[in-house]
Predict the 3D structure of the following.
Amino acid sequence: MSTPPITSNILSVALDVPLDRTFDYLNQGFHVQIGQRVVVPFAGRQLVGVVLAMPAHSDIGLDKLKTVIHVFDDIALDKSIYPLLQFCAGYYHYPLGQLLISTLPLRMRQIKPAVSRKSFVYRMLKPIPVECVQKRQLVLQRIVQALSHQQTLSEHQLSALAPAWRKWLQPLIEEGYVQAEEVIAVKPSVPTSPIAPHLNAEQQQAIDAVLQAPGVFKPWLLYGITGSGKTEVYIQLLASVLAQPQAQALVLVPEINLTPQLEARFRSRLSQYPLVTLHSNLSESERLQNWLAAKSGAAKIVIGTRLSVFTPMPHLQLLIIDEEHDGSYKQQDGMRYHARDVAMVRAKQFNIPIVLGSATPSLETWYNATASLHKKQSYGLLTLTQRAVTHAVLPKIFCIDIAKSPVENGLSPLLIQAMRERLARKEQSLLFINRRGYAPVLHCSACQWHSSCARCSAKLVVHLSQRRLKCHHCGHEQKIPLQCPSCGNTDLKPVGQATQRLTQTLAQLFPTARIARVDRDSMRNKDALTEMLSKVHAGEIDILVGTQMLAKGHDFPNLTLVGVIDTDTALYSPDFRASERLFSQLMQVSGRAGRGNIAGEVLIQTSFPDHDLFHALRAQDYAVFADALLQERIAMQFPPSRFFVLLKAEASDYQQVLQFLNMASDTARQLSNEVLVYDPVRPQMERLKSLERGHVLLQAEKRQSLQQLLHVWIPALRAHKLSSKIRWALDIDPLEF
């Protein structure tokens, strides 16, 4: 229940500015409540802010306080989300005002009322006399009869009775017989598969374990092989939890392209519970409407990407993080939070269970869910070891040694033959290559020139159909040169494979096959991915060529072959997380094969078939692989047994960056002897968008040691003369270096 508006002389307002404080303003006669949006003057401009407090006194003299310009009376934020925002602002050392405003829909950040699509229900207040309904008014008779029977009618129900219902109902509203009540409109769901599939023993045990202690914070890792029915466990958990009055549930997914399929399954099976989605593919009005539905409690299920973790939901009873290992949950600019970690804090604050689902859990989660000599088990572990579909088995995984079976145009003879067999049997194939475009680089064989980005330490990717070279990091693009810019040679060749080139090769090899390419370039339109998935399920596509957009979450019953192209670069990456990511990616994409009743097969082209990673992959034993990686991490004192903070800096002049980072590392060493401070180094991407980059890594055994240092270190960094001349930011618990 919202606090009634009051009149206060001083308002403490959070603003979208990079300062760790709120700002006091004078209120001249506006009725205000905590959480309302206001327009205030700030540094010669007008900003939207949110009222966080109404203090009795201000540290600044009243004669120096500026006055609030306007108070919006449309929407007030829910106080239940404030503790989470305050925690994040403190832990990630980010201004509370910037964080708060960034979590709002765009319409609420603008200096105008946040107009949303209004919807009403019409309630009968008292019996309608017969004389008000004349015999000739058959339409009005139908409306009154329906109202008398149901007491309340929605606009949808009234439209079904009479298209012009508004003109008939208006007199009854004016005379006090009927009242219009505004409600939050939520798209209705239609049940299409009301019968729940039979649960196996492992699924039932997982559901029972989570439900055994309602209203208690408990993290659960739902570790299940691909196709083991994790989504069915989610559905059954939601059905049980949402049966409670007013209960709500939040389901996070790593990427937009996983939303339509999950939404469709939830709508068909949980149609009685209003559901909304929150992601960047929505229009601004849709996003606002769905956000309001969650905030009001009208939406019982919210499915969203990482920012949705901050959505106000007053009756939240369950949190689910699907594909919890996915790096997309980590924000890489602004406040660099990890949605999985924030969700954990939110679940603890609300005292509710949280379920983390994955076939290849992150090592951080695996570390917490398994007991070891170094720590106690802190998460519950729920394991699904068999595929949910009867007779469905895990695909067989083979490595093709490309030293013995050379590739031509990216494809080995063995993989080509396997695809030909699937086409003959009218089964589907998927080729996975995590590189979009035509080719990774354009090369001159005469002088060894290659297409490099002038603004980044990266190659320009060939997009042949558009005759362009594009940088996938900064967005720079240019025409493909007719001759080498270095020596004038006209024989320039695209080198390497990417999705467009592979699709072209397949079209030549299999001219009658129906081939679809799935990457960020081909799926730009809002409904492109949904339409493509429908074609796959309808059997209208024979071969899929795609990036990681296809690697996870999708269920293609007739897909029996997965071919993996060019993954070896990750095996010798300097990133200590590279092997973990590669194993996860290959396990996920392998899981797309054989999910129906036909056995699946996975063929991986590699120069290192005897690598330990491929041995573990062929055995499909994530636990053994993860435990071995954990032992390495613990021995190296790397996460998850230790904690990192990364100070990133960039400027057009690297000497300024280096000077700032040297000062920062020296200062950190002086301030703490519990934190290991590394010397400044350059990241893998040394230059990005014409800025030279460097970073300093801090390492500690305890989070508390890092946080204590940061509280005194950050002010010292801000006070340095170079602080305003370069761009710098802190990344707490970084994933990329």
Q: What stands out?
A: DSSP finds 20 helices and 31 strands in the chain. The chain has a mean pLDDT of 89.
